[in-house]
Design a protein that fits this description.
Chain A: Keywords: Acyltransferase, Amino-acid biosynthesis, Cytoplasm, Methionine biosynthesis, Transferase. The complex is a heterodimer of chains A (398) and B (198). By secondary structure, chain A is an alpha/beta fold. Chain A has two domains: 270 residues, Alpha/Beta hydrolase fold, catalytic domain (Rossmann fold); 107 residues, Orthogonal Bundle (Rna Polymerase Sigma Factor, Chain: A). In chain A, helix 3 runs antiparallel to helix 4, helix 3 runs antiparallel to helix 7 and helix 4 packs across helix 6. The two termini of chain A are 18 Å apart. Chain B is built from eight helices and seven strands; from the N terminus they run αβαβαββαβααβααβ. Chain B has one domain: Vaccinia Virus protein VP39 (Rossmann fold), CATH 3.40.50. Chain B has 198 residues and is an alpha/beta fold. Classes of the chains: A alpha/beta (398), B alpha/beta (198). Chains A and B meet through helix 9, strand 12 and helix 10 of A and helix 3 and strand 3 of B.
């Protein structure tokens, strides 16, 4: 039984979980997927923060977004410059307080950070999965996450928490395994993608697939990476993560040099920023994974099974929900969260909703913001009280 | 709890499914849930109020009441309560319609502008009243539709609504006998329970 992954790390900030080591678990029971195929075996990589209590009642599942992964908090080495992607909200005394909760964060199937995905070995062919890796859905992820919960001996999550695509997984949890989720936190998400959302995803996919170095997904066998495609995909995606205001205040029309060059090199600061973001991403992320993740987004539509009636689709859910949106998020705007809230109230579910004022667009869900933190902490504090989780036990192990 | 909330508490039936418009910190909903098994949602726009509701475990939805209640279906609640918000709405009359579309019964409280202290302020001293129930100055008040006990009764009559109950609050009390006899003069806070005509 894994205990806390967090080790003593003297230099860490007081509210950091410190150094963490990921675990890999192999599942040998085949996993039937929504697409009709079956994954014969697979591995999931995950991290944990905090300590699982004796009642196993304090576990919190973190579901990641499009380009996220298992490393949500803390540091892998003392030299790491940046902590995990949700370090602002996970740690001692933070919204998801690791003095109280045992936090589990994994990399989803199809990912490129250590869980089985397109870059993994395909036992049937002996080559890499590459583009043969089956298209996985949010439902498939949730099934695999439930198996991880079984492996960890967690019968029921005190809370399942996620932003963006992560929020969709949380929603699916409450539908597929209602008895295994005591609370659900769905942040900056949507009950299904709009035509515009799908359109942006398609542009990203086309950017990747039309890169001559993509080789129909077999780029690894050609010893290359479709960097240009990935870079473009990320650049277009990144625009949708920021708000117009945030971009305006960060870059405005600022130029890198004093004069216009009347050419097509980088001139405006915003161009430089996007290219940098794209370049960084293109060497760190797998193209086939990006295609899969955007498909999982596009396909997610729980209401489809109920003739478009979301309230009907959410009927199985049993837990209280916290739904959060951000005022300047235009990727999954507040109105989409409100759709979800309205479906939940129509279904008579326990739900609270807040629309947080933030200039940061969709990315706001990743960032610290006083109101967001106060609200998130209030909800998680309530979760702890309801589940009779106190900080004392966990405190001793730190 | 605030005086008007104490009164309302008694008017909400056991196990009712309710909406509490402008629910503030959620104290009414919390007590109703704990003591009367009441379910439902509070609507609130103030960030601190919303956080306090969440901390209490009260269901709260961030919502601007001036946007109406179109996201709530006809007859989907037993009661809709709105405390101390009527006077701050752009169209209080339309909200009244909305409340009684969503539920058969509504409970409304608002500051009675005809309260004797307010009358003295305005009538004798010549200033817009500032009091415990109307704490703002004229220029920064959110209360844009001030009305009186009588005004509201008149509106209900015009709309053909049945006034099931009415009461007043004065300061921290439920009101002296004088406020029962002359609510428009001695009631600081007007409290109405209204229904659609069957």
């Amino acid at each position: 039984m894994p205990d806390s992954d967090t080790l003593a790390y003297d230099d860490r900030p007081a509210d950091s979980v410190g150094l963490v080591t990921p675990h890999v678990v192999k599942f040998e029971t085949p996993l039937p997927l929504a697409c009709g195929k079956t994954l014969p075996e697979y591995e999931l990589i995950y991290e944990t923060y905090g300590t699982l209590n004796a009642e196993r009642s304090n576990a919190v599942l973190i579901c990641h977004a499009l380009s996220g992964h298992h490393h949500a908090a803390g540091y892998h080495t003392a030299e790491d410059r940046k902590p995990g992607w949700w370090d602002a909200h996970i740690g001692p005394g933070k919204s998801i307080d690791t003095n109280r909760f045992f936090v589990v964060s994994l990399n989803n199937l199809g990912g490129c950070h250590g869980s089985t995905g397109p870059a993994s070995h395909n036992p049937d062919t002996g080559r890499q999965w590459g583009p043969d890796f089956p298209v996985v859905t949010v439902s498939d992820w949730v099934t695999s996450q439930a198996r991880l919960a079984d492996h960890l001996g967690i019968e029921r999550w005190a809370a399942a928490v996620g932003g963006s695509l992560g929020g969709m997984q949380v929603l699916q949890w409450t539908i597929t395994y209602p008895e295994r989720v005591a609370n659900a936190v769905v942040i900056a998400a949507t009950p299904r993608l709009s035509a515009q959302n799908i359109a942006f995803n398609e542009v990203a996919r086309q950017a990747i697939r039309s890169d001559p170095e993509f080789f129909d997904g077999w780029y690894a066998e050609h010893d290359t990476v479709p960097k240009r495609g990935l870079k473009l995909a990320r650049m277009v995606g990144h625009i949708t993560y920021l708000s117009e205001d945030a971009m305006g205040s960060k870059f405005g029309r600022d130029l890198r040099s004093d004069d216009l060059s009347f050419g097509f090199d980088v001139e405006f600061q915003v161009e430089s920023y996007l290219r940098y973001q794209g370049d960084t991403f293109s060497t760190a992320f797998d193209a086939n994974t990006y295609l899969l993740m955007t498909k999982a987004l596009d396909y997610f539509d729980p209401a489809a099974s109920c003739d478009g009636d979301l309230a009907c689709a959410l009927a199985p859910a049993q837990c209280p929900f916290l739904i959060v949106s951000f005022t300047t998020d235009w990727r999954f705007p507040p109105s989409r969260s409100r759709e979800l809230v309205d479906a939940l109230t129509r279904a008579g579910k326990s739900v609270s909703y807040a629309n947080i004022e933030s200039p940061h667009g969709h990315d706001a869900f990743l960032l610290p913001e006083p109101r967001y933190q106060a609200l998130f902490s209030a909800f998680m504090g309530r979760v702890a009280r309801e589940q009779h989780i106190d900080a004392a036990g966990a405190e001793e192990t730190r | 709890m605030r005086t008007d909330l104490e009164l309302i508490y008694d008017w909400v039936p056991q196990g009712a499914h309710i909406l509490d418009l402008a629910c503030g910190d959620g104290v009414l909903l919390e007590r109703l849930a704990q003591e009367k098994g009441v379910t439902g949602y509070g609507l609130e726009i103030d960030p601190d109020g919303i956080t306090q509701c969440v901390a209490r475990g009260v269901n709260v939805i961030e919502h601007n009441l001036d946007d109406g209640l179109s996201s709530f279906c006809d007859n989907s609640y037993d009661q809709v309560i709105m405390t101390q918000a009527l006077q701050a709405l752009r169209r209080p009359d339309k909200m009244l319609d909305e409340m009684l579309r969503v539920a058969e019964e509504g409970i409304i409280t608002f500051p009675n502008f005809a309260y004797w202290r307010h009358r003295i302020h305005l009538g004798l001293r010549g200033y817009m009243p500032v009091s415990k129930s109307l704490p703002h100055a004229w220029y920064d008040t959110p209360n844009i539709h001030l009305s009186t006990f009588n005004d509201f009764e008149h509106l209900c009559k015009e709309k053909g609504l049945v006034i099931v109950d009415r009461a007043v609050g004065v300061g921290d009390h439920k009101g002296h006998w004088t406020s029962k006899w002359w609510p428009n003069l001695f009631g600081e806070i007007a409290i109405f329970r209204v229904r659609r005509r069957a």
